[in-house]
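dumping this here before i forget
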Amino acid sequence: MATPATLWATDAGAGDNSGDSLINAAVVDPSDVNDVWSIVNGYGALTQALDIRLCGNASTTAACNITKDALNTFRITIQGRNAGDTADSEATIDAGGGAYDVFEFTTADFWIVQDIHATNTDKVASNHGFYATSSADHMFFNRCRASECNAGFQVSAASNPRFLRCTAHNNGLYGIFSAQSGSCAYCSTWDNPLGQGFLYGSFFRCNSHNDRYGFNSAVSVTECSVYSPTYDAFKNDGSATMTCTDCIASVCGRSGYRTNTAVNMMILKRCAHYLCTSGRSNSATGTWVDEDPITLTADPFLDIAGSDFTLNNDAGGGALLRGVEFTFPDAVTKSYHDIGGAQHKDRVIVTV
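structure:
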């Protein structure tokens, strides 16, 4: 077993460990589920926001079930840090192949989960990295990572979950899944072979690499890039209308953009495609609006083998997607931005 993690309870907004007290002893062992993951319940009815800081890496032999018995009206933050408690680090919790979720959130409101890596070597059904049950609500995941689980992030029916700068890779099923509306921004997923990107909400500047689907059943997808999906890059499989704006579908096993049934609608605006086996779209199915389509004749990415979605400047590739002009409805104001999830940096030449 890895070195036990340390769980800190802090006054909300403290920002460091000075003056904070440890919960339940000097070191809390995450393998003891009752000692660690029920800690929030141990606080009873909260009278103020609660910050919990998880420092270090650990293995666990039971589900990390974090619950609140009654409706909670105060924010609870779980903050991961490595043993040195430095910035831009993460705490890793490894379920070690156990048949359970790494983190499970039930009957609670207002959760903020940050800088935690949930992993497991057992990808069988129902073993998820971060799992919120139908009773959870107001979930916000920031800079979290999920790998080697069944689904990386599985939010069954939480109200409007938010994912910011999260990654999900090498999971057995979905990378990020939400059964209700929500949003993802600046997230990356790769190598989720049985599916990815089910979110009945919106994606903004997200990337998908080697997933079964890039983005599936979203309502709105803006400035997102998909490379080498097994099937389709952008697929409407459940939303009545799905809108894709300034997106890239590259080297697709099937279509770049796809609707699943005749009742689905797909709206595309300034979207690009390259080397899609079944073509740009299956536009014979459902209702389509495809404005200002962009057909690429070269790979648009700088180093996709290294998972770098930065646009290159090759003719027929990234050059067609850099600094694309958009005119506002006033017919006067103009904006220039890149198509896809990454914006390039212009080199500034100064003459002296």
